[in-house]
TrEMBL record:
Residues 315-413 form the Histidine kinase/HSP90-like ATPase domain. Keywords: Cell membrane, Kinase, Membrane, Transferase, Transmembrane, Transmembrane helix, Two-component regulatory system. It comes from Pseudonocardia benzenivorans. This is GAF domain-containing sensor histidine kinase. GO terms for molecular function: kinase activity.
Length: 421
């Protein structure tokens, strides 16, 4: 026999103080249950250990055979089995019920208790889950766990092998327990969300560092293969000119001419390398001016511009400029387009960039942009740039119908203040 007793029909004194008697008549058993719930709630910030402890407490308190604790997942569209009494604890995290599906899903949707005394299969709300062996149990009761009128946290299910008429007092007991543990489970869910957000931030930081290192390697390669080599060659021409100045003025003049050409090429490559880090045009003209300058540099097809003269935070301007640059390069290389449109606007706290062409288009794979097989490195690069500034990228295309790329970046209130400054 458990410390709480397995005899049905006892009462738990209602912790809300209205005098209602709920299931365990012995004050000692009521106190033991309350202490057990408090101990479980204070055992740690994680959902699964708390739900497992609650499942054990409930089977003891209600003299039932099995308890399942289904917790609302982070999407708030389905329930996940977060705790269960053995032998079903091995399925924790693997059972999911959409809101409205099955008895637990019905309880979550309607925020009402449900009781099935026998013949579960005949109840239209019942959905069999083979792993949970519903046919082994005759009766069941299910109640919502809520922190308030709109604070659904999950659903408690209890099952018995023998037929059992769950009384109003039984449901009251389950409801009280549900309310007692709902707050702790809610805090555990918030902790889980916080941990997930921290992991996402860590991955974000890793991506930023990797992108920075890749950019440094690319720039180092450009300098080594281009600027450095040209400077070495330039020194040879200047040496040759110096040696020939007296003996062969014509050769010296030729070498100086070659050196001058190399200086021009080296300056061009240096400007390109600097532009690879941050386009200088953004400092002078902002994103609208930068996009207009970018469009003028591509004479291969007509480009129509619709650009708001809005300044954005530096990192957002760079990301959107690079996305537009990649789009226009893709159009030049692959689209065989005669017309492109570049639109930039700020509307209701969101920056919008659209690049549209009338080219040959392509079939967008059924995976999110940036995923494997979603259009190559260029598409992945644009997606990552958008995500790094908190935005998202959409690509709309099909063969023969051109391509539309839309980047949206939400602006914080501080960003909006920067825009107006």
């Amino acid at each position: 026999m458990s410390p709480l007793g397995r005899e049905p029909g006892h009462a738990l004194l209602n912790p809300y103080g209205d005098g209602t008697v709920l299931g365990l008549t012995s004050p000692e058993r009521a106190n033991a249950l309350l202490l057990g719930i408090i101990e479980a709630a204070s055992s740690g910030p994680h959902v699964e250990p708390l739900a497992a402890a609650v499942a054990r407490l409930i089977t003891d308190a209600t003299a039932t055979d099995v308890c399942f604790v289904h917790v609302l997942d982070d999407t708030e569209r389905s329930l996940t089995l977060a705790g269960a009494t053995p032998p079903f604890d091995e399925h924790v995290g693997a059972i999911h019920l959409p809101i409205g599906s099955g008895v637990a899903g019905w309880v979550a949707s309607h925020r009402e208790p449900a009781v099935i005394v026998e013949h579960k299969e005949a109840d239209p709300r019942y959905v069999p889950i083979p792993a949970l062996r519903g046919t082994d149990y005759t009766s069941m009761a299910s109640v919502p766990m809520e922190t308030g009128p709109s604070g659904l946290v999950g659903v408690l299910n209890v099952h018995t092998v023998r037929r059992r008429e769950f009384t109003d007092r039984d449901l009251q007991l389950l409801g009280v327990i549900g309310r007692l543990v709902a707050g702790a489970l809610h805090q555990a869910r918030l902790h889980r969300k916080l941990e997930a957000r921290e992991r996402a931030h860590e991955r974000f930081a890793e991506q930023v560092i990797a992108a920075q290192e890749a950019e440094r390697r690319r720039l180092a390669g450009d300098i080594h293969d281009g600027i450095s080599q040209r400077l070495v060659t330039l020194s040879y021409h200047l040496d040759a000119a110096g040696h020939s100045m007296q003996s062969d003025p014509g050769l010296a003049a030729e070498q100086l001419g070659l050196a001058r050409d190399l200086v021009d090429l080296t300056l061009d490559e240096a400007r390109a390398a600097i532009g690879g880090l941050r386009p200088p045009v953004l400092d002078d003209l902002g994103l609208a001016g930068g996009l207009a300058s970018l469009a003028r540099s591509l004479p291969h097809f007509e480009i129509e511009l619709e650009l708001d003269d809005e300044r954005l935070p530096e990192h957002v301007e760079i990301a959107l400029y690079r996305i537009a640059q990649e789009c226009l390069q893709n159009i030049t290389k692959h689209a065989r387009a005669t017309l492109a449109r570049v639109r930039f606007r700020v509307h209701r706290g969101t920056a919008w960039l659209e690049v549209i062409d009338d080219g040959v288009g392509f079939d967008v794979p059924g995976t999110p942009p940036g995923s494997s097989g979603s259009g190559g490195y260029g598409m992945q690069s644009m997606t990552e740039r958008a995500e790094l500034v908190g935005g998202r990228l959409r690509v709309i295309s099909r063969r023969g119908s051109g391509t539309t790329v839309i980047a949206t970046v939400p602006l914080s209130s501080q960003d909006a203040a920067t825009d107006r400054a």
